[in-house]
Amino acid sequence: QVHLVESGGGLVQAGGSLRLSCAASGRTFNRYTMAWFRQAPGKEREFVVVFTWNGDMTYYANSVKGRFTISRDNAKNTVYLQMSSLKPEDTAVYYCAVKVDYSGRLYTSKSAYEYWGQGTQVTVSS
Length: 126
What we know:
This protein is 0% helix and 52% strand.
């Protein structure tokens, strides 16, 4: 199994920045799709960003375009979500997820993903 651990969440003021990380361990694969989702209280878990193993394709939700950026450190087997210009509406538990996949397709549905982290809380105050 692939084990995913998110970290880096916390409390920030509106307009601030925060960097989340997702470290993968256990069984790993050379080809996969990874995504970030978030879930606010009383709401469905929603898509944030997805990218493929080859790094050729990255797709952001409209709500975060221009503010959030993903990057990776292959040596550390870690992916980062850099969040800037944070808004109160960004408050949520953030999850990373992985789907073993060789197609290079961008999956935005939570039901497509096989492995999930425990989540990390991000709170943005006004």
